[in-house]
Amino acid sequence: PALSRSLLLLGCCQLQLKKNNAASDSLKAYLSTAKLDRNEATYRLGQAQRRAGKTREANVTLLDLFWNTEKLTDKWAIRAAFDYGYDAFAKDDAKKAAEALEKVALADAPDELAAPTVYMLAWIDLNAEKYDKAAMRFAQITAKWPKHPNAKGCVYYRGFALHKADKKTQAAALLKQYLKDNPAGKHAADARALLKASTPKP
Predict the structure, then answer these.
(1) Cβ within 8 Å of residue 4, ≥6 positions away
(2) Cα–Cα distance list, 31 to 39, 61, 77 (Å)
(3) Tally of CB atoms within 10 A around 130
(4) Based on CB atoms within 10 Å of each CB, which residue in 16, 113, 174, 186 is the most buried?
């Protein structure tokens, strides 16, 4: 057991040193015999494969940790689902991204994973024209993670989503709030134009 454990530690060290192929070999050797810490080793293996550019292998490895589990409780499975969903989102594969990220959203994920998960899901909903759901997620970010890098923008995006959902009064209130707090913000010009379109004509 001690020798087997040393392979896991070696793989983790190699991963930190960016020796990704060597880390993969060590972690595979560990997994071939080990009975303990298998989820951690599997996740680390997926990391090594991703960093080595072996995306297909990494996806298979990560999927093994979370795909057939309805409610994720293991921290390594949660991280595997996040990594898989993040990669799918970056590649505009909304279906795969949503399937993985919804599992993270339902789990007791740490804030470092939960906040970006909700943000990505909000954009998936917005792009799918699920405007009420997108607005709800953007609201969740501003309420629960006000220091999130995109929290200010989420006020605007929520207003945009509600405008698209034909909830003009709510949209106008949010756009006014965004402009009050961020008069020279990144989305200020768009917010003013959208506010004009959202305000009922006399």
Answers:
(1) 30, 33, 34
(2) 10, 12, 16
(3) 16
(4) 174
HEC letters along 24-76:
HHHHHHHHCCCCCCHHHHHHHHHHHHHHCCCHHHHHHHHHHHHCCCCCCCCHH
What is the rounded CA–CA span in Å between residue 24 and residue 126? Answer: 38
Extract the tokens encoding 110.
Answer: 């740490």
pLDDT of residue 70: 82
Region 137-159: mean pLDDT is 95
Q: Is the pLDDT of residue 1 over 70?
A: no
Mean pLDDT for 113-126 is 98
Residue indicated by tokens 């505009």 = 92
What span, in angstroms and rounded, lies between the C-alpha atoms of 182 and 159? Answer: 14
The model carries a pTM of 0.90
- C-alpha to C-alpha distances, 62 to 21, 126, 153, 156, nearest whole angstrom: 17, 27, 31, 35
Contact 113, 122 (CB under 8 A): no
Other beta carbons within 10 Å of 39: 17
Mean pLDDT for 11-17 is 95
Under 8 Å between Cβ of 47 and 15: yes
Is a pLDDT exceeding 70 seen at residue 2?
Answer: no
pLDDT at residue number 4: 79
